[in-house]
Amino acid sequence: MEAASTKGVLSHLSLLEVQARSRRSRPQQQSRVTELKAKVEALKVQKEQLEAEIQTHQNLQKLRSSLDKQCADEDDVEMEEDSENSELLRLMARHTQLKDLLHAHHLIGGYDVIKTRQGKGVCVSLATAYEGVYLDTYNLEIDLKPAVRISRHNIPPFIPVNSLAKENNMQTHMRAFLDALSQHLNAFAGRKQELKLLKEQHKSVEVMESNVLCSILVLMFTVPKEKTAVLCTLDYIDHSSCLPKRVHLECEDKQLPDSPQWKKNCSLLMETPVHTALTAMRKVGDIV
Amino acid sequence: MSVENMEEVEVLEAQIELLQAEVEALQRQQQDNQKDMTFQFRGQMHDAVASVCGLGPGGGKERVLSRLKEEVEEMEEDLRQQTQMNGISLTSCTAKTLQSSGRKVVQQLCVSGRCSELDFQVEFKLSELTTDQRSQRTISDLNVVLDSSDLQNFSSFVSSVEESRDLLLFFRTLRTFSDRCDDRCRTFQHFQQKYPSVVSLPGGCRSEVMALSHAELSGCVLFVHWSVEVSREGGVTPKIELLTKIPDEALQLFPSRPVGGATEAFQSLLRILGAEAAIESIIRAISLQQDV
């Protein structure tokens, strides 16, 4: 009885297994078809969505260019026929235009002003660039109320922020102050960049001395034939300029600084960025 | 598997292949579009695109619309602020992507606008190169167009800016130049209102010339010539001169310094008193006013 029942259970189990297997394989075939059908549906939806997005893009582009034209001509051109989405599309087109205009303000060296503390203060950014390459950006936090005052900034300590604020009357002429500061920062960034380019492009010229403000630069040149050394001091007295106001030469050959050729070199160094001036001097064979 | 099923599967697979090809083509077109339109859609704009395409998230069009409106208003306010702070009003900025390959994006930008009374347009290429979390932006092929008649003094500066690609310097100088011109205009208008019988502005208040004459001194005219010079390096300096137009007979009667040396005398006045006071003293002189 026990044995029979055991056998009965086992055979029943194996029967169930066979049934289950066959049941599973049929739906498998079925599910392959449904799977593919689902995929077709999904792709159709994706296609429709892409088509709709591309259409929206085109509509936006059209609206945007008519917006740009309007701005240029100050002409009120009637928009296209109103569809249910026209207001939204118009807003979107204006959004893209505003975004581009704000980006342009940033690119042309705008101060990227942000109001802080419910309008009681502002944050401004000062961009620097040299020969088309954007360099460091500095930031200032200025209190407007109760009094106009610089509260925080990340400008190097050797840039005279406070005296520039006083000189330009920041209280009443915020922009004049920012312009002057921007000029100083750009001149500093420019001198720093020139020094970097000088070191990269003129390995044979030795930089004997320079300071953090890059306002003093002492260089050593070698005159090719005689192999004499020339010590050249560039003095950037005007810290708001990238060009030195004074160039001084020292050489064992006392005649050299007074020679017409080296006088010409001196004025070249005062009129052109130092790395380009050196390239010119090397070309004519005045320095190694 | 039955034959029927096999056939169905084959048909479906062919359909899928076709659809996939179509989707890929559309995706490429969309990418091209996004290249041309420099903006990428995020945040509210993303929702708005979805809504226009009928795929909006819950909440419907109304909510998408009001949220986008809010964002656009914030941006309008932001633009007003930047315009006020920068003293430059931008009217249009169009960007076209020339190259976009992974780490390097090159765009052609055209920005136009106005600074005080000066219309400008700048065109340049902007390259953005991303390397290890840092991005380097560079401007090249800068081209500047200024729309104004009396800008000979600007031309050498503009060519030097184009050469050095110094966009920041250009706008800083443009602004300073406009500010100095506005100063001049204000001063001219002030004197014209204060001394209407003596002061006239033959070229309008924005011109460089102010004429001074008096009814009792017919034939005698003094001109204040006030120009704003821009150096090649971008330095802006006002230059004020006094020119005289006095009939020969009068000169013969008074060959002495007060008349003949007026131009030089005015320069000393300028140095001592500054522009406004120097001009005012000349005006009072020609008004035949007695200093009390």
TrEMBL record, chain A:
**Which gene name belongs to this protein?**
cenpo
Q: Which UniProt keywords apply?
A: Centromere, Chromosome, Coiled coil, Nucleus
Highest taxon of the lineage: Eukaryota
Positions the record marks as coiled coil are: 33-63
Q: Which organism is it from?
A: Stegastes partitus
Its recorded name reads Centromere protein O
Which family does the record claim for this protein? Belongs to the CENP-O/MCM21 family.
Family matches, as Pfam families: CENP-O (PF09496)
State the GO CC annotations: Mis6-Sim4 complex; nucleus
Q: Tell where it localizes.
A: Chromosome, Centromere; Nucleus
From TrEMBL, chain B:
Q: Which UniProt keywords apply?
A: Coiled coil
Spell out the GO cellular component terms annotated for this protein, sorted alphabetically and separated by semicolons. Answer: chromosome, centromeric region; nucleus
**Which sequence ranges form a coiled-coil region, renumbered to this chain?**
2-36
Indicate whether Iron appears among the record's keywords.
Answer: no
Which InterPro entries does the UniProt record give? CENP-P
One GO biological process term is:
CENP-A containing chromatin assembly
Q: What is this protein called?
A: Centromere protein P
Q: What Pfam families does the annotation carry?
A: CENP-P
Domain of life per record: Eukaryota
Is Coiled coil among this UniProt entry's keywords? yes
Q: Which organism is it from?
A: Stegastes partitus
